[in-house]
Amino acid sequence: MKEILRLSRKTCLYYPIYPAENQLQQQRHTLVTVLEHLVPVRARRQITYPREELGENLPSERVLRKQEPYALCHMSRKLSLEPKVTINARIVVIGASDTSLALLETLVFCSHLHFNNITIVSPHGLPTTREQPAPFLHSSECCTVENLQQMALHTWVNAVHGKMTAIDRSEKFVLVDDRGRLYYDYLVLCTGQQYQLAVPTGADVSLFATTADVSMTTIRNARRQKQVWPDNVFVLNDSIDVQLAVSWLTDNFVNTDGKAIVYGSTLDAYSAVQALITLGVAGDRITLVEPPFNYQPSCFNNPDVEGAVAENLRSLGVQVYTGYLLAQWNEGSVLVQSIYSVSFTSNTKPLEVECAAFFCFQHKSVDYDAFTAINKACLVYDGQLVIDAGYDTNDAAVRAAGPLTKFARRYYADPWSHGNFNSKEVGMQLAVAMLKMFDPTLEIETEPADEVHSLIPMYRSPRVYTAQLPGGINYLHIAKPNINAPLHAQMAQSDYGRVLETGSLATADYFRLHLNMFNSVETITCFTKQIIDVSNLTCLYGLHEKYLNDLQSRFDEGLITDFYSYFREAWCLALFHDRFPNFRDEVRELLMMQGAPAITPQGALGAASLEEAVRAMVDEDIHVTKAQRQAMKAEYEKNNKEAVEKQLLKFISYNQYHLPMYARPGMV
User: Fold this and answer.
1) 3-class DSSP state for residue 451?
2) 460: phi > 0 → left, psi -120 to 50 → alpha, else beta; which?
3) What pLDDT was estimated at residue 453?
4) Which of 32, 196, 310, 642 would suit a FRET pair with 357, their CA atoms being 20 to 30 Å apart?
């Protein structure tokens, strides 16, 4: 590479990798044989600019121009002088979940390491880079289609289409579809949880059986039996499943008079109703059957939103039945090739509905083949695969993460698992833990580190859900990682904080903002027909309301009537910049270095930094008088204010090509 740069008289080389669907762009670039010597470049998150509001203050057209997404590889003179360590260890990743994709992204984008033997095993290989033909499934925003196109994981990762059916820990191989062996040095299990085929309980509705007559033993025995999959029953877990379902619906259902049943009360169930309507299915041909909630909060965990969704379903003509359990296909037939009617039981009378297409979104669980392979391999399984705080199972060569797993009971944290956290962050932290074995620049641990106080790791990134709901509603929910507790129970806590709302659910312009007890953004809920700037609003999570232009005081004064337009104003665009978190860290370092007073129980002043002063107040619960607050403010303005302002101007000037709407020194 150094010789190529010298002969071509270039300082750097770039090579774009376009998605497989873009044949035109692929033809413009020759095949490259030195790709392993190039360094993949991680794509930066871009601000979603409100063009109409900014007017002439928009960035240049080069920044705004929408380009075909592609992955980029780079080589410069400096990088050619840095040695790249080749890792030949055989790493096999099971499952194409958000967790595993985040793991692969972190490993692949290590500029000084080259992993040449990473393999992923999944029924459909790597996720497709095509959009869903209809919005049947919600998105966690962990790994969007655009992200996949910008990573080009197929370039660096081997994909095996199939399911893991067995694990041989002694010989170190996994069996794929009971046929091929795939040997490994390190095995990573990230299968997650998927929707499974609903199993009828077998209750005889002709005898007016109720749900109370069905025992849990009967349900478990039914689930263990090998089920025949009817050809008009759909269980959708990824975009490939959606494409196959849409193709079948277009050919066999949309232009007929048959009725569709959507079974489930998850967010995907409501999305499926909207997707069917988008495909041209009339609302009166759709029936939504919700199974019993069993004292669990709904997928919205907000009674007002639930009521609005129910009203939209009613206005569309969709029939909704709540509290019904699947009992029979086709009046009790056992071997069913195609279903024409479905029976349900409830706490009162049974229900029988005509059916030409059945969509199952009842609940997610671990895939049966994955469970069988894990259990027969003698990996500890306690409802979920048991791991410790370092992602290790009881086999040193097998690691696991994601909703498949749970923490060992010695942590006394049964309500918490990786399913409570952001899957992308979990996958990135798993990669960091694995890099300690491969990266020579990191300190080598000769012995396993002792777990500090046997605590589970905590993750800080929010959980994000986006979906299209019935009535063309765009739904966004951003929340802190937490145990799934009812909203009214959370709001009853003294430290819950405050809720700010604009708009209404009836007019579909609802925006709910929850500030915690420290006045930082903890929850955002959007329910609207307008397009939501998801990437922008996600950046608000964890910010103090002072960052948001004195949000509370402006709201109380009636100056904010619409949060959607408020967060599209020019002043807040710097908050959405991908380098703004780095700017906050730099400001914090300034406050830690500059001198400031500390409040002691006796009221004395004097400390090394403002950070220590604030920490003393929090740790010792000191009551600060008004005079002491004024003294701290005066000391801050004397020692810190000018330094913070200079740092802010430096941030604005350095990123002026993205933030031209801000005034800078020398402009006037």
Assistant:
1) coil
2) alpha
3) 57
4) 310
